[in-house]
Known about the structure:
The protein is mainly β. It has a single domain (2-354), classed as Porin (Beta Barrel), CATH 2.40.160.10. The longest helix is centred in the N-terminal third of the chain and has 13 residues, at 2-14. The protein contains 3 helices and 19 strands. The strands form 2 sheets. Strands 2-3-4-5-6-7-8-9-10-11-12-13-14-15-16-19 form a 16-stranded antiparallel beta barrel. A two-stranded antiparallel ribbon has the order 17-18.
Amino acid sequence: MVAGILSATLNLYAQDSTKTVENAKGSFTFSGYAEAYYSYNTGQPSNHLAPGFLYNFNRHNELNLNLAMVKANYTSDRVHANVGIMGGTYTQYNMAAEPEALRYLYEANVGVRFGKVWIDAGLMPSHIGFESAIGKDCYTLTRSIMAENTPYFEAGAKVTWAPNDKWTFAALYLNGWQRIKKVDGNQTPNFGTQITFKPNARILLNWSTYVGNDFPDSTRKMRYFNDLYGTFNITDKFSFIAGCDYGLQQKEKGSSDYSTWYSPIIVARYAFTEKFAMAGRAEYYNDKNGVIIATDTPNGFKTTGFSLNADFTPVNNIMLRLEGRLFDGRDKTFLKKDTPTSTNDAITASLAVWF
């Protein structure tokens, strides 16, 4: 599957003049992205897997492909549509719960505009978070703990209203928490909202929410989740993102007691030149009751993380990246040569190509 995607990517890239086809009704655009990587984890896991809460760049001591994707887009004044197929370790670990026939879909959606309102339906990128599977669009090589443990994609319907250039409002009906196929025995509706505010060209503020149940109705546990972040482009060279996630989930069906988790983060980036940039990340994840990340340790998952990466873009569609990352946990939630430890380190390098 991956070989087929890469072959299609190379063929499309060679035929650059056909990437965008315009006609009187709209335009078709074809694009592609591929990112290969090598990661060395000091825990030296015998199964070659990074800690279980990571779903990107998570294979230890082997050359691998995180994501290879080709996408077709149609855009006109009142209609747009997207279809993307993919392969790689991102696909392997993020789509494991989906039916085999759906695992290689990156997105498949269509939207119709009525005035200032868009109605979209299908498989779409998540409305939660400032990171995505497309590495070149993220400040850091690897994804944050909060990004890895919130949805990258969602299936459902979305209504978006943009009354002006500053405000955007959206409401969503979803199949679940990062699910195409609903959980068996689950008939509970799932909802999401998103509000985006751009006071000027350099600042973006976002508040996204999710309300739903990710269990069979017989053991329903309602989940309420908030995602807040701001993107601040201070100068043409320096920018940073600050955010915090906060979630609640019922401990038992019908209970008024809730487990909570939260995760603050700050990521800063400085572009020394058009070709070279560096970024640093500081993050913390607190999930004492193991709602999202279960550990079976006295204090649950309470982990601080730091990373530093360097990015080199020799030409406009190639990026080379190198990143060092450290995790420091309250309990011994990591393994080093199969022995419990409270810390974990990794060095990762990647090569991304796109058109």
